[in-house]
């Protein structure tokens, strides 16, 4: 039996688990990059750039953090959608994107690595469309901008 996905607001006590989930998920997706070496940078970004301005929603199943999303309704920017690899395809990402749309009813903008075809398909399936190309300001990797408007 699949456990129900519970969404709730982020709490400061979630920080370590959320950061570890970010590291583990990105490490799985890009094994050639050492995300362990980026944890201190990510923790600083998390504390200074995301948590103060974004709505952070946590997904849990069976008491374990299985994903999170960060969205700033003021700018419409969805910065992070992270789901534990063992929960990919299990409904967590869909539940989080639906919550992001609820929190930012005027629309959402995001950038996704152009080589992340799986994520691009997911966003298209959930009503996002291509809106341009660019480079990630942190990694320098090519990205596609995508948007959702109601």
Our measurement of the CA-to-CA distance between the termini, rounded to an integer number of angstroms, reads 34 Å
Question: Would you list the SSEs in sequence order as H and E?
Answer: EHHEEEHEHEE
| Sheet with most strands | 4 strands, antiparallel
| Share of helix, binned | 25-40%
Class of the domain at 6-106, according to the CATH hierarchy? Alpha Beta
Overall residue-averaged pLDDT value: 91
CATH topology of the domain at 6-106: Aminopeptidase
Shape: globular
Strand content: 25-35%
By DSSP (H or I, 4+ residues per run), the number of helices equals 4
* Strand elements, count: 7
Spatial sequence of strands, sheet with the most strands:
1-2-3-4
Which stretches are poorly predicted, pLDDT < 50 over at least 5 residues? none
CATH 2nd-level architecture of the domain at 6-106: 3-Layer(aba) Sandwich
Give the name of the CATH superfamily of the domain at 6-106. Answer: Gcn5-related N-acetyltransferase (GNAT)
Assign the structural class, choosing from mainly alpha, mainly beta, alpha/beta, alpha+beta, or little secondary structure.
alpha+beta
